[in-house]
Amino acid sequence: MIEQSRLVTPVLGFAGFSGSGKTTLLEAVIPHLKSSGLRVGLMKHSHHDIEPDKPTKDSYRLRYAGSDQLLLATSKRHMLFFEYRDNEERDPQLRECLAQLDHSRLDIVLVEGFRNETLPKIEIHRPSYVKPTLFPHDPHIIAVAYDQKPDALDEFNLPSLDLNQPSDIAGFIKHWLANAPESEKYLAYELKL
Known about the structure:
Layout: E1 11-15, H1 22-35, E2 40-44, H2 58-65, E3 69-73, E4 78-82, H3 94-99, E5 108-112, E6 121-125, E7 141-146, H4 153-156, E8 160-162, H5 166-179, H6 182-185
Parallel strand pairs: 1-5, 1-6, 2-5, 6-7, 7-8
Antiparallel strand pairs: 3-4
GO biological process, one term: Mo-molybdopterin cofactor biosynthetic process
InterPro entries: MGD_biosynthesis_adapter, MobB_dom, P-loop_NTPase
Pfam families: MobB (PF03205)
């Protein structure tokens, strides 16, 4: 049964080109958010095939026996596997992935990747990587985190964040959570109940 779309948990993206340091930044920011008492969910988009299991493990054997979904549950964690066996390349859909999270246990969902999706985002930019900035073409970028200020940033009146100050970036996120309009913080998506 699918319930009507609901506004469940604030969602904030971290967008940038590969190698810009999104994962490294998130790894440094999350402990600051956690120390404030926030329950943080994270969704990471990858273009690589992943195999988080070993062939000798029961869960691996059961997945390869043909299960379409497998939930591996332990006292410490749950892992949910979805298998797409139709040999069709299937790019994950942000809203579908969001619906799979347990929102009753989260205060915010941070999204790494999905840079072309419509959601509020912090852009990660390093001019030394010689990649273009995203903010001039993406109205959903609400701040830019960088190690050297991009030239065009002043024209756009966006908050600028120092990549080397994860506590300040966490502070920006907490301020955004407390003050952003509801229409900016939430994405509507269907929850399967």
